[in-house]
């Protein structure tokens, strides 16, 4: 920091707060995909909208709140395919139209129309 003998800033740059570096290892890409989400303790799916995606994480807006640390199954519907993700909630916040969740991807499958799957809750209610 450039200062005079009286410890006053000498440039406008010295007055600006220092930026903290982005902790993400990869960039997030904005997206808009419809999805359904299933929490560890929920029996019914809830709607969701994926807002961003990266190599190891996703952000989605859902009609329900999942707690930090919860594992959530996310079924994403694309134009020609579907994908199943298991994610762990890292942070959440209330928004006007639902709850936003930032998550780390724990498990990713391929196209679910070619790869059958069973939700983790289905086996208990089979």
Count of individual helical segments: 0
Specify the overall morphology.
Answer: globular
The amount of helix comes to: under 10%
pLDDT < 50 stretches: 112-126
Number of strands: 6
Mean model confidence by pLDDT: 77
Describe the main β-sheet briefly: 6 strands, antiparallel, barrel
SS-based class: mainly beta
What does this structure look like?
- With 126 residues, this protein is an all-beta fold.
- It is 0% helix and 48% strand.
- The protein contains no helices and six strands.
- A six-stranded antiparallel beta barrel has the order 1-2-3-6-5-4.
- Strand 2 and strand 3 form a beta hairpin.
- The termini are far apart.
- 15% of the residues are buried.
Features:
126 residues; globular; disordered C terminus
Map the helices and strands:
Elements: E1 29-39, E2 46-53, E3 57-62, E4 71-77, E5 82-95, E6 98-111
Antiparallel strand pairs: 1-2, 1-4, 2-3, 3-6, 4-5, 5-6
Short recap of the structure:
This protein is mainly beta.
